[in-house]
């Protein structure tokens, strides 16, 4: 991600200096954030979402707008405390494992039902495939990190699934925990 | 007689448009390379490369649709591959797949030029044998010259335990030092006596007189321990192990 973005900047410096400048600053903010929060156990959801949006602007520059991400975040969830970079890793996973040739859609939802909050990230990509049933194998470092981080949340559960419905198919990850 | 050197025809595969544009811009002022096509889709690239038959393919590794490694079996055998990637972790696998070079993004034009020189050597080494004889006398003195800034070091060929290619530069390792040489392993391999120097790994050419020990490894491979001060361990490729076994009846 970091080195690919530097490569993108190196390309854009000649073809689109303004965009190069934009990507450089978003990358700086993202790096500063990930260095700052490494010492924090929790950040608010609203801060985390800001970072995800910066990250997405970089990816959009790399893949030329064939990426569409929608956020549906319930207002009263914005001040929730979460371990840092969980949402960012889930979105990054969706981007890393899917082709953009037909456009990629990612849907991020956070909502509160009673005293249980759910964070959902779904995409219209290739899904986890059959690997989903072989338990450990489909989880890379990113997902394993998330699994260990969410232990800091109360009664947290993470579920991975492949969905398929009238709207299409893809991967779906849901984290839920008590507040 | 000056021989006309043909321009290398190159093709670029990368799922990021800016990455393709950067490489095209770096290659465009060069007289030795002409970009004849590029694609962001690995499957489309396979079709076009087979049709256009480029000499050289710059190939990204991490692409969502298909990885760079996945498409190699579908490319013409004579195509030279230079991987371009932002991640170091695939380097060994890349050389096992017979890549000529491995460029870490972002790379500057100097590093790119080294890769192109390597490709040219690889193509000429696979060409006719008469050419090799003409260059051979350079190494007959048994002394290699290593230039480092204003200093020029003379290194006896017999004192070199092994040559290692790293980041586009070949280093000759003596018992406890390493000297850079402006050549490629392909060129050295073609020119040095194969009784003394064996290439059994993509990035190593070793002097058999300085082998301390050989251990059998899994999958028919061998682990070679050199007698230098670090007791450097080098694992052979499977084909490399065959060369070594044949020469020493192991």
From TrEMBL, chain B:
What keywords appear on the UniProt entry?
Answer: DNA-binding, Phosphoprotein, Two-component regulatory system
Pfam families from the UniProt entry: LytTR (PF04397), Response_reg (PF00072)
Q: Which residues cross the membrane?
A: none
Top-level lineage group: Bacteria
Give residue ranges for domain Response regulatory.
9-120
* Record-annotated HTH LytTR-type domain positions: 144-250
Q: Which GO terms describe its molecular function?
A: DNA binding
Identify the SUPFAM superfamilies for this entry.
CheY-like
Q: Which positions bear 4-aspartylphosphate?
A: 60
Write down the InterPro entries for this protein, in alphabetical order: CheY-like_superfamily (IPR011006), LytR-like (IPR046947), LytTR_DNA-bd_dom (IPR007492), Sig_transdc_resp-reg_receiver (IPR001789)
Note the PANTHER family from the entry: STAGE 0 SPORULATION PROTEIN A HOMOLOG, TRANSCRIPTIONAL REGULATOR-RELATED
Name of the protein described by the UniProt record: LytTR family DNA-binding domain-containing protein
Q: Which organism is it from?
A: Alkalimonas collagenimarina
């Amino acid at each position: 991600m970091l080195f690919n973005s530097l490569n993108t900047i190196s390309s854009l410096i000649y073809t689109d200096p303004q965009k190069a400048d934009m990507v450089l600053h978003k990358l700086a903010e993202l790096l500063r954030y990930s260095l700052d929060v490494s010492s924090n156990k929790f950040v608010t959801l609203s801060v985390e979402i800001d970072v995800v949006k910066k990250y997405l602007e970089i990816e959009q520059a790399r893949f030329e707008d064939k990426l569409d991400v929608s956020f549906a975040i319930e207002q009263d969830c914005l001040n929730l405390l979460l371990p840092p970079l969980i949402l960012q890793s889930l979105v990054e996973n969706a981007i890393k494992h899917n082709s953009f040739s037909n456009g990629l859609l990612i849907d991020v939802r956070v909502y509160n039902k009673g005293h249980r909050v759910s964070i959902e990230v779904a995409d219209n990509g290739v899904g986890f495939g059959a690997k989903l049933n072989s338990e450990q194998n489909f989880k890379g470092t990113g997902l394993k990190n998330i699994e260990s981080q969410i232990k800091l949340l109360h009664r947290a559960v993470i579920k991975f699934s492949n969905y398929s419905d009238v709207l299409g198919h893809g991967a779906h990850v849901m984290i839920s925990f008590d507040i | 007689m000056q021989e006309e050197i043909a321009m290398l025809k190159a093709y670029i595969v990368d799922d990021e448009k800016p990455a393709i544009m950067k490489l095209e811009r770096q290659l465009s002022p060069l007289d030795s390379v002409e970009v004849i096509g590029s694609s962001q889709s690995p499957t489309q690239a396979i079709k076009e490369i087979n049709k256009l038959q480029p000499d050289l393919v710059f190939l990204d590794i991490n692409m969502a649709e298909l990885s760079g490694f996945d498409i190699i079996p579908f490319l013409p055998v004579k195509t030279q591959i230079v991987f371009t990637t932002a991640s170091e972790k695939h380097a060994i696998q890349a050389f096992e797949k017979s890549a000529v070079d491995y460029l870490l993004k972002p790379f500057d034009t100097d590093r790119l030029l080294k890769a192109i020189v390597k490709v040219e050597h690889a193509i000429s080494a696979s060409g006719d044998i008469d050419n090799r004889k003409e260059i051979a006398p350079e190494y007959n003195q048994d002394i290699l010259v290593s230039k480092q800034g204003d200093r020029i070091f003379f290194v006896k060929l017999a004192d070199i335990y092994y040559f290692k290619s790293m980041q586009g530069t070949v280093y000759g390792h003596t018992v406890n030092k390493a000297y850079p040489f402006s050549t490629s392993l392909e060129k050295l391999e073609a020119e040095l006596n194969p009784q003394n120097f064996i290439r059994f790994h993509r990035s190593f050419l070793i002097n058999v007189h300085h082998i301390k020990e050989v251990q059998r490894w899994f999958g028919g491979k061998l682990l070679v321990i050199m007698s230098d001060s670090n007791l450097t361990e080098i694992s052979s490729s499977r084909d490399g192990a065959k060369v070594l076994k044949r020469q020493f009846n192991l």
